[in-house]
Amino acid sequence: ATVAAFDAAAAEPKLNDRADLVRRVAAPLAPLSSNHLAWRTSSEHPNETTGRKDVLRKHATRVIRETLDREKDAVYVGEDCVHGGYYLMTEGLHAAHPRRVRDFPPDET
Hints:
Helices cover 39% and strands 6% of the residues. It is mostly helical. A two-stranded parallel ribbon has the order 1-2. The radius of gyration is 20 Å and the shape is extended. The two termini are 36 Å apart. The mean pLDDT is 78.
């Protein structure tokens, strides 16, 4: 079965154009809403209050928050995430979702 899977993958057409590659691997998994580009405004344009561009961690925090808001069975477990984490990636999430954002000690053994 493994050999057959590799043979099937090898027989697939190869992508030589970057645009084709992006189109193939970055296709939306669900239909996009009419405001699907709204998220880009905060990364392409300066923040209205600070005048600076938002950093990646703020976008990541927003995605985690949106997921926790939307998916009621989602949880976030990580090291020191209750207080915001080392890079503040989870800043404010525990206050918004105290039962679903939990610290978990790393296993370094």
